[in-house]
Amino acid sequence: MPVTLKDVAAAAGCSVTTTSRALGGYDDVNEQTRERIITIANELGYQPNVLARQLQAQRADTIGFVFPQAAHQPDDDFFSLLMKGISYVASNNQFDLLVSSQLTQEDELRAYQRIAAGRRVDGVIVARTLRNDPRIKYLKNNNYPFVVSGRSAPDEPDDFPYVDADSQAGIRQVVAHFIGYGHEHIGFISSPPELAFTEYRLRGYRDALAAANLPYRADYVVHGDLQRESGQQAAKDLLRRHPQMTAIVSSNDAMALGAMAAVQARGKQVGVDIAIGGFDDIPLARYSVPGLTTVRQPIYHIGELVAEMLIQIINGEAPEETGILLEPKLIVRDSSGQPL
What we know:
The protein is of the alpha/beta class and 340 residues long. It has 3 domains: 5-57, 434 Repressor (Amino-terminal Domain), CATH 1.10.260; 62-165 and 299-326, Rossmann fold (3-Layer(aba) Sandwich), CATH 3.40.50; 167-297 and 329-336, 3-Layer(aba) Sandwich (Rossmann fold), CATH 3.40.50.2300. The chain is built from 13 helices and 12 strands. The chain has helices spanning 5-12, 16-23, 31-44, 50-57, 77-92, 105-118, 134-141, 167-180, 197-211, 228-241, 253-265, 283-287, 299-314; strands spanning 62-67, 96-101, 123-127, 146-149, 162-165, 186-190, 221-223, 247-250, 275-277, 294-296, 323-326, 329-331. The strands form 3 sheets. Strands 2-1-3-4-5-11 form a 6-stranded parallel beta sheet, sandwiched between helices. A 4-stranded parallel beta sheet has the order 7-6-8-9, sandwiched between helices. The radius of gyration is 23 Å and the shape is elongated. The termini are far apart.
């Protein structure tokens, strides 16, 4: 089995990127480190991939990230945390980060097409997958390096490199938590149907109900747009139609915070009259009053992992894992209230 760049990096105790740059003659590697890496590579009999080296000679040492349409909304802390993780890894590996901001899905797709056609970056990160995602289809058809923050929808193949949190397990945890507190009438504020993770989170809601032998009621589910105002309106509608409802779980924290506002506007107390739960654990979740019970997905770490995976691909290395699914964690705060 041929020796890979990763084998040389492991033997040298260096990162794959540092090893690649040392062997490629880049001047930002310490001379002593470079000589040690070259010696180890020779001892191991490492033969560089000629095609990969040719591609590296044309490299821009830049990765691209296009802000999706939803990132322009004021409540979406998800993307700021994700980009911080991406930026940290890019900087540590001497890569620049090119960020493009688009207002519509059509503009976003055109941005990927411009980036790929002009080879302005060595690879791109795609975020918040859609059903039958045209961005992924375009990048695959053009053999352009990319990694995705998020999976395909459950009925679509995950035939691309990705990092995601297990949304289904996460929502199942928070709904089961409320059921354990004695709640039987639990509403769910779902995300837009076109998003790939929507079905996973709805399945988590249904799983928890089924495990407790509670019926699933379609009229207990409403869709929002992931923003606070839509969560507020959704909760208002649920509580008006179903006064027996004692808990609401939201597909993200922003909508959950909106649901809290709806409860308070009715003269009710969150955590006393109505329990509220979310998903993400954005910074505001711990500072809301009361603090929001939610599911923590490691957004910053996901950013780190997608950047690391993309840089490996750019360097001509096959990532050890091309599909990483992280376990979320239930964070219980005062919006749960006390057991009934």
